[in-house]
Amino acid sequence: MPSIHPLVFYVTGKGGTGKSFIASTLARTAAGRGLDVALVRLRDRGPGGGEHRETDGLREITLNEDEALEDFLTHAVRLGFVAERLLASRTFSAVAAAAPGLRDLVTLSAICDVAESGAGKAFDLIFVDAPASGHSAALVTAPARVLAITSAGPMGRLARRMDSLVKDPARCRALIVTSAEDLAVTEALDLQRRLRAAGTALAPIVVNGLYPARLSKEQAEWLERSRFSTDALLHLERRGRQCELIKELEFETGPTLTFPFLFEEEHAREAADGLLDELTGGGA
Q1: DSSP per residue over the chain, as a string?
Q2: What's the pTM?
Q3: What does the alpha-carbon distance between residue 191 and residue 169 come to, in Å, rounded to a whole number?
């Protein structure tokens, strides 16, 4: 993929829709094509994290919030000489937790560092296993919230840097994953509206877990008349409802992409190849 900057896919969606699976599957598929790929996972505060593991062109990076904050204070805000004392201070921790967008800005700064080869390696593609939809919009809109308070000094400079990343479709796209279920579709639509209003570049929504169409129209009509198999009827009804929800979703958003419900693991690679081609325009 000839590009000056890697393309970052910020993979998010309602919990339980398979966003982590989609992020991991796409990353491994791209690495299998010989590309240099990073899979970035986010970890809450506490011990652990900061891990880098590389296999077959895929570097898996786990970002720890405390370590990211220390790095932010040391290198970005240039307060390295007091970083450890600040992090150990309960008062600072309380202020940091309450400051509008600070911890989100720190996390996004760490992702930006990976995109700009801060992890010591230039990547072709980066897949971020982002927070679930309840928090993901807050993370990508953190730079704008900081800029609304101040555009001066180190914080303003960093916020502008990250704001330009999340709003540049050539460098970063939010990839919303949903399942074809009523609540998940409603949440995906709400998240897309919030991200679009914030100016975030968007990839097509991915509908995960679509049941395969195993019957022709004539076979389906025969099954409905004969009621020959309750299991087959249940599959047919679920598939029908999924297709209805996808149509409703596309009426609001435009074309979507789908990933099948995998009854057999052997079909995963073919499905992942097709999805990756759709997302990258066949350029990966």
Answers
A1: ---SSPEEEEEEESTTSSHHHHHHHHHHHHHHTT--EEEEEEE-SSS---EEEEETTEEEEEEEHHHHHHHIIIIIS--HHHHHHHHH-HHHHHHHHHSTTHHHHHHHHHHHHHHTTTTSS--SEEEEEEEEHHHHHHHHTHHHHHHHH--SHHHHHHHHHHHHHHT-TTTEEEEEEEESSHHHHHHHHHHHHHHHHTT--BPPPEEEEEPP--S-HHHHHHHHHH---HHHHHHHHHHHHHHHHHHHHHHHHS--EEEE--SSGGGHHHHHHHHHHHHHTT--
A2: 0.83
A3: 18
- 7-209, superfamily in CATH? P-loop containing nucleotide triphosphate hydrolases (3.40.50.300)
Residues 277 and 284: beta-carbon distance below 8 Å: yes
pLDDT tens for the chain, 284 residues long, are 445 578 999 999 999 999 999 999 999 999 999 999 999 998 755 444 556 777 777 999 998 776 766 666 665 555 544 545 544 555 445 445 545 466 788 888 889 888 887 555 689 999 999 999 888 888 888 888 888 887 887 778 888 888 999 999 999 999 999 999 999 999 999 999 999 998 999 999 999 999 887 767 777 777 678 777 877 777 778 888 999 999 999 999 999 999 998 766 667 788 999 999 999 986 66
